[in-house]
Write a structure and sequence with these properties.
The protein is built from 1 helix and 22 strands. Belongs to the phosphatase 2A regulatory subunit B family.
Length: about 300
């Protein structure tokens, strides 16, 4: 098995998706609690496995695009089927996961093997019936969102409106509609006119769980920027900047490396943000920009 590169629970916690360096996605399902141990959480067993991405080659730039899955995000469930987004460095894919435990039998124009009958042999009509069969999990690709990023995609986040999502690379964040694959809308662009002036890159981004106009993105310098899409089409000017003042006495060559935020998440309520850097996990209050409310050494 390949090294796991990302993990993501669905909204109920029933399913757990993992992506690996070989471009595979493995979905685990939680087993129901046993009657003998009613309070024990069921363990997770393999539910489905599929190849999400293959290695590609960019001939224009002479670059290999590896198949490693960078991020997986589940979409809120609308019906019996589940949907998830998976991305490697360049291409985002939407997958649909469905279950089938019945099969139709008794066709009028087909035989048992599915071949068409000779119409002259059909003398009577019958009503096809659904017969139970072993559970089959089918995974089908629904959309492929390509050519939206020049740099490597580091995060994807589904909006609370359930219609749009965003994807972030080192210098830009794009807004996509889940039904439109051939174009996206650029909402953040921190690329300077001269690349020598570049001082930081985007490391992660996340939509607010309740307000579809708000999102946050983190940087390699350890800062968080909260943006409001109602303010302007291009959110280069943030609404709030969350940054801990640096202690000059502790500054060293490694300060910027260890302060780089690797991931950011909102709490379920949307009141707090959780960030992970090299040495700590920090909890930020959306109403307090000057310092985190909690810092945990990890």
């Amino acid at each position: 098995a390949d090294i796991i590169s990302t993990v993501e629970f669905n909204h109920t916690g029933e399913l757990l998706a993992t992506g690996d360096k070989g471009g595979r996605v493995v979905i685990f399902q939680r087993e129901p609690e046993s009657k003998n141990e009613p309070y024990s959480q069921g363990e997770y067993n393999v539910y489905s496995t599929f190849q999400s991405h293959e290695p590609e080659f960019d001939y224009l730039k002479s670059l290999e695009i590896e198949e490693k899955i960078n991020k997986i995000k589940w979409l809120p469930q609308q019906n019996a089927a589940h949907s998830l987004l998976s991305t490697n460095d360049k291409t985002i894919k939407l997958w649909k996961i469905t279950e089938r435990d019945k099969r139709p039998e008794g066709y009028n124009l087909k035989d048992e093997e599915g071949k068409l009958k000779d119409l002259s042999t059909v003398t009577s009509l019958q009503v096809p019936v659904l017969k139970p069969m072993d559970l089959m999990v089918e995974v089908t690709p629904r959309r492929i969102f390509a050519n939206g990023h020049t740099y490597h995609v580091n995060s994807i986040s589904v909006n609370s409106d359930c219609e749009t999502y965003m994807s972030a690379d080192d210098l830009r964040i794009n807004l996509w509609h889940l039904a439109i694959t051939d174009r996206s809308f650029n909402i953040v662009d921190i690329k300077p006119a001269n690349m020598e002036d570049l001082t930081e890159v985007i490391t992660a981004s996340e939509f607010h769980p309740h307000h579809c106009n708000l999102f946050v993105y983190s940087s390699s310098k350890g800062s968080l920027r909260l943006c409001d899409m109602r303010a302007s089409a291009l959110c280069d000017k943030h609404s709030k900047l969350y940054e801990e003042p640096e202690d000059p006495s502790n500054r060293s060559f490694f300060s910027e490396i260890i302060s780089s935020v690797s991931d950011v998440k909102f709490s379920h309520s949307g009141r707090y943000m959780l960030t992970r850097d090299y040495l700590t996990v920090k909890v930020w209050d959306l109403n307090m920009e000057t310092k985190p409310v909690e810092t945990y050494q990890v």
